[in-house]
Amino acid sequence: MPRRLRASAALLSPIVAALLLAPGASATDTPQAPSPARVKSGPAFPGSCGQPPALRPHTFPARPRVDNTFLPLKPGTRLVLTGDVAGEDHRVVTTVTDLTKVIDGVRTVVVFDQDFNGDEIQESELAFFAQDRRGTVWRLGEYPEIYENGELVGAPDTWISGVEGARAGIAMLARPRVGTPTYTEGLAPEIDFLDCATVFRTNQNVCVPVGCFHHVLVTDEFAPLDPEGGHQRKSYAPHVGNIKVEPVGEANPETLSLTEFTRLGRKELAAVRKEVLAQDARGYEISPDVYGTTPPAQPARPKGLPVLP
């Protein structure tokens, strides 16, 4: 689920190093604390999401491509965020796969999220994203498998847009601006799931273990159906994605920072693909009434080949 964001710093690739450097900095510079930036602040605690946006499948391309500046989902990208939840060591590994899945008439990119407390897995989630032609990124569903003591116990929080009243939501605006109305990130009434977000700040400088980022977007995320859950401030770096999560008023605060940003090789990506396809297949047994209504995940087709139905 979005609000369950779901290691020493890794060596940076040349591409990542270039992203981290401020204008005029050299590759040998040591990251410094964020310098003051021009700040635009939005409302700290918005009260309502309003109505979920209308999903219009015809506004999405036949072949999904997510290249939003603040939430790029390029296959083979892996982000590791490390921190703690209520005082326990926590790690979230997010991998953008080269698989697609049709959800509510839209072909989506499959993202693989794994949550660990220490070395023990707590949740393994398939999440589904698509970007419309205007550049807005949508979240169309999630299949999160829950583990206890290393054993799979089910996937009670599964939701799929168009099934049992669930509605897709906005994962990232095309052009985030302070003052933009608060928006819905997803709605699933059968499991009491409703997440909302608003643009909190723009043009920030944020340092995390891998280095310092500039022109960072900060959103404020909350769940109206869980008022005691507090808020999460999430920082998004251009061309990278989510680099930091900070709690505001949470009963079980979750703090995470980016400790690794890499591109997987072919063999590594193939191993992830195999694991995700196995989880996708399990979903038809564990959640037949919800996840079972979707067609199986499939590898993306290279350009020039027929589009999958």
UniProtKB/TrEMBL annotation:
Keywords, ordered alphabetically: Signal
Record region (Disordered): 26-53, 287-309
Highest taxon listed in the record's lineage: Bacteria
Signal peptide start-end: 1-27
Protein name: Lipoprotein
